[in-house]
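hey so u asked for the seq, here:
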Amino acid sequence: MERVEIAVAAEMHKAWLILETSGRTGSIAIARGEGIAREAALDGSRRHARDLAAMVAGSLEAERLKPSELEGVVVSLGPGSYTGLRVGVISAKSLAYATGCKLLAVPTFAAIAEQTPEGATSVGVIADALQGLIYRQRFERIEGTWRAVEELRIESLAESQQWLRGVDCVSGPGVNLLENPVFEDVRRAPTDSQLPRCGSLWKAAQRLAPVTREELFGLEPLYLRGSSAEEKAKREAGSA
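ran it, structure tokens below
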């Protein structure tokens, strides 16, 4: 998704809505300029679909903003929670379509890479893809900016052992999968930097071009695979 820098930097100094729903506990924020003006966490014990619209409305009201006054919306694109991502992406698309505001779709791993501690020049970001598989992607700090140097892929954790040891540190929501003693020598990013934050989404978004009107309708979360229910149905159909 990283294509070109936004042409007019002044656009980023207006109000933007940020939606992060890739994990169990999502969050939303209002950004102004280079910083976050307001941020709120969604209740992890409830469904994002139930709370997201109400929380967005409350945050906009607190900032004295109407939806039509937003310059744009930033959304976390995944990988991550199948349902959470779908709720976030559909909400962002609906807002952009209804108000005509800009939409920036940020790969979740790009935001996590932004949180890598100083001193590291490479980071491997991983997430649980279930059934013994992980999502993985390598990023490197190039001229002071974190850039993806390989495509997002799915691979078994066992197959990724050499890859995991080939980066300065490993980050992302899948780090908890490395509790096995066989991975004790794998260097890990601090716990507080492993999950995406709205501030990191905002930072990564500033290197992206807005989704075009034509791209808006086809925009989908980064899954690389179907939901657990879809894959179960395929297995059952194949064994029938």
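The beta strands are 15-20, 27-32, 35-41, 72-76, 102-106, 122-130, 133-142, 145-148, 153-156, 169-171. Residues 82-99 form the longest helix (18 residues).
lmk if thats what u needed
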